[in-house]
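Justification of computing resources. Each target in the renewal requires a structure prediction run like the one illustrated here; the chain below, 227 residues long, is used simply to show the kind of job we budget for.
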Amino acid sequence: MKRPAWLSLASLREVGPIAVLGIIALGLLGFAELADEVFEQETHGFGTAVLTFLRLPDDTSTPIGPAWLLNAMTDITALGGCAVLTLLTIAAALYRFARDDRATGLIILAAIGSGALLGNLLKLGFDRPRPDIVEHLTHAASSSFPSGHATLSAVTHLTLGALMARGQPSARLKALVLGGAILLTILVGFSRVYLGVHWPTDVLAGWCLGAAWAALWWLVLRRVKQA
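Resulting structure tokens:
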């Protein structure tokens, strides 16, 4: 029995790039929608409800949950900080250079470096104030939208996760690696809201932008490898 044309090996190889293009489109669309809502100040009620829900009703300086949860969120949020992500990026790039894979090392540096630059420029452009309805439980200095931790953790963890998944021998291991990268990105973003230093829409926008940026550079790496 002849295999249908859409099940050919060549067709299946195109599923990945098409899916990645979809991620880029959805990520940019999601960011644009959130940016429009934030610009028109239509998300304040939603953000206030989420931030106050995560605090005790009679004391907005105290988050809900046991004491260890606050400590865990403080540790997790550091995984999206500039220092940790910079060290992780440099280590990953040096590893690729040591493996004589100069192209991948340079793309890692370009993807994450440009993602950080883009996020900071957008912060300056929107200049959204940090939430002031609950006490900040960690240091935060720059403007709020989009979340730098959410954006850069998405760019870094998803980019490196995708690279690690490429070398896995089975689909199960690929899914495990990518799933871990996605979970880590989600936890970092949630920690920023839990600690009161970001509006939920800041984090959602950072995820959208970071995922789209990581997907874009995945396509760049794929084209370079093919060439």
